[in-house]
Design a protein that fits this description.
With 384 residues, this protein is an alpha/beta fold. It folds into 2 domains: 240 residues, Queuine tRNA-ribosyltransferase-like (TIM Barrel, Alpha-Beta Barrel); 100 residues, no CATH class. It has 15 helices and 17 strands. The strands form 4 sheets. An 8-stranded parallel β-sheet has the order 4-14-13-12-11-10-6-5. It has a 3-stranded antiparallel β-sheet with strand order 1-2-3. Strands 7-8-9 form a 3-stranded antiparallel β-sheet. The N and C termini lie far apart (51 Å).
């Protein structure tokens, strides 16, 4: 296995492109980590607190998930990265045999709003759990992730809300770049990749500046952060068109926090390799599910006597065994199985969607796949 992309000591990390769509920017590849090989494009289920809500590791593996995301901020506060390191690392702690990417916690810290104060040195914040005081720096974010032992760590970054002024966004870009340099300077684990995060809100010149600066520093992969925070979808796509040509062809590209199926399909067309989002489990817990024609709210009365599967075209365990009427009954009865079944289906839907996208890229028909899916999905609008 070749050395890691960041240079220096060899790392157990490799990204190989297998196919490219000549019409769109879609790519099919293989991402190798110490815990296995992941076929891309890929959707990563989110296990914020060392668990993907309502799902066991075996169930995730069974639906084809090979990499999940966990969160530095939450695990730092509870149970603490020292405890997880003592347990043998995050993989052993949660009994997950696949790969793990850890978010740096930047998004969560900056979402605290009134509970935090930002300086060039780092961020002082108060825990949302007990109000205790903490100070997160780029160095500490890296140290926590090294304790966790994830396969991919993220640089600490500053994410501004949408809308944001150009001045505030530029300040965050400059700070994010400096913090990325500090993260790389202290990162030591040879079995862990480190990704930089491009910021710049919806301002093209700032996105270009951020991407070029991170490429000059050099990372194992590059994430695009600060999108899917309230901006119109067209703005997201415009920024992807600006940023992706700047990023190295041979490095994985990760669009953070995006999980609507139509966004994933368009993101793949623009050259994105990796996605994550809490959307499939969050909406599942509330009775909303994806299907080939859009979204359904199974709590609606119209499904009371609907004895068909959630999605007739889906091969997941839920669709093979249970009906819309039954799942609706579970919700109306307050049964926790309802949330489990809908989360299971939604996660399978997105993992499988990326598998279908990959096959279409390899077979040379991604534009037709994209057009067909988007025409049927109706933009993700809820269907009664």
């Amino acid at each position: 296995m070749r050395p890691g992309f960041s240079g220096g000591t060899a790392k157990m990390f490799e990204f190989e492109l297998e196919a490219r769509c000549p019409v769109t920017g879609a790519r099919a590849g293989r991402l190798t980590t110490p815990h296995g090989t992941i076929e891309t494009p890929v959707f990563m289920p989110v296990g914020t607190q060392a668990t993907v809500k309502a799902m066991t590791p075996e169930e995730l593996e069974g639906m084809g998930a090979r990499i999940i995301l966990s969160n530095t901020y939450h695990l730092h506060l509870r149970p603490g990265s020292d405890l997880i390191r003592e347990a043998g690392g995050l993989h052993r702690f949660m009994d997950w045999k696949g790969s793990i990417l850890t978010d740096s916690g930047g998004f969560q810290v900056f979402s605290l709003s009134d509970l935090r104060k930002i300086t060039d040195e780092g961020v002082a914040f108060r825990s949302h759990l007990d109000g205790s005081s903490h100070f997160m720096t780029p160095e500490k974010a890296v140290a926590i992730q090294e304790n966790l032992g994830s396969d991919i760590a993220m640089c600490f970054d500053e994410c501004v809300p949408y809308p944001s002024s150009e001045a505030a966004s530029m300040e965050a870009v400059v700070r994010t770049t400096r913090w990325a340099q500090r993260c790389k300077a202290v990162h030591r684990r040879h079995d862990q990749a480190l990704f930089g995060i491009v910021q710049g809100s919806v301002f093209e010149k700032q996105r270009i500046r951020s991407a070029e600066a991170l490429v000059a520093i050099g990372f194992d992969g590059y994430a695009i952060g600060g999108l899917s925070v309230g901006e119109p979808h067209e703005e997201m796509y415009r920024i992807l068109d600006v940023v992706n040509p700047i990023l190295p062809e041979g490095r994985p590209r990760y669009l953070m926090g995006v999980g609507l199926p139509s966004n994933l399909v368009e993101g793949v067309a623009k050259g994105i390799d990796m996605f994550d989002c809490v959307l499939p489990t969050r909406t599942g817990r509330n009775g909303t599910v994806f299907f080939s024609g859009g979204r359904l709210n199974l709590k609606n009365a119209s499904f009371e006597r609907d004895f068909g599967p959630i999605d007739p075209e889906c091969g997941c365990m839920v669709c093979r065994r249970f009906t819309r009427a039954y799942v609706r009954h579970l919700y109306k009865s307050g049964e926790i199985l309802a949330a489990r079944l809908c989360s299971w289906h939604n996660l399978h839907f997105l993992v499988n969607l990326m598998g279908q996208a990959r096959r279409s890229i390899v077979e040379g028909n991604y534009p037709a796949f994209r057009d067909s899916f988007l025409a049927r999905f109706r933009g993700g609008a809820p269907v009664s």
